[in-house]
Amino acid sequence: MTALYQLYSSRASDANFSALSHVFMPIFDFVCTHCHHQFEALVRGTDVTTCTSCGSTALEKLLSLPNVKSESTHNLAMRAAKRRDKALGTERMIEQRKYEESHDD
């Protein structure tokens, strides 16, 4: 997918590029070599990216991990969410019990 994007981004005047530009989101991770701030930026065509913290153009592009959505990653995310929700529910129950014990009417 990256090679395909590079092919089309190198031919920005090509009609096929405009057809695919809505499919690929050219979001890159950067670190500023001046202030060491890490951030993401949307970069299109010949846009010059600047640091969101200090405004410097001395940036280093970082290697980004692909965002993969599959049944297994969905299941992992759902299990993590259920664990988080269970922990929050337990915490709320304990806080409610403490409140009720301290406010006997």
Task: Provide keyphrases for this structure.
3 helices; 3-stranded antiparallel sheet; single chain; alpha+beta
- Report the principal-axis shape: elongated
**Strand percentage, roughly?**
5-15%
Number of helices: 3
Query: Whole-Å distance between the termini?
Result: 65 Å
Give a brief outline of the structure.
By secondary structure, the protein is α+β, with helices and mostly antiparallel strands. It is 44% helix and 14% strand. It has three helices and three strands, in the order ααβββα.
Describe this structure in words.
The protein is of the alpha+beta class and 105 residues long. It has helices at 2-9, 15-20, 71-102, and strands spanning 27-32, 38-42, 59-62.
Topology:
Layout: H1 2-9, H2 15-20, E1 27-32, E2 38-42, E3 59-62, H3 71-102
Antiparallel strand pairs: 1-2, 1-3
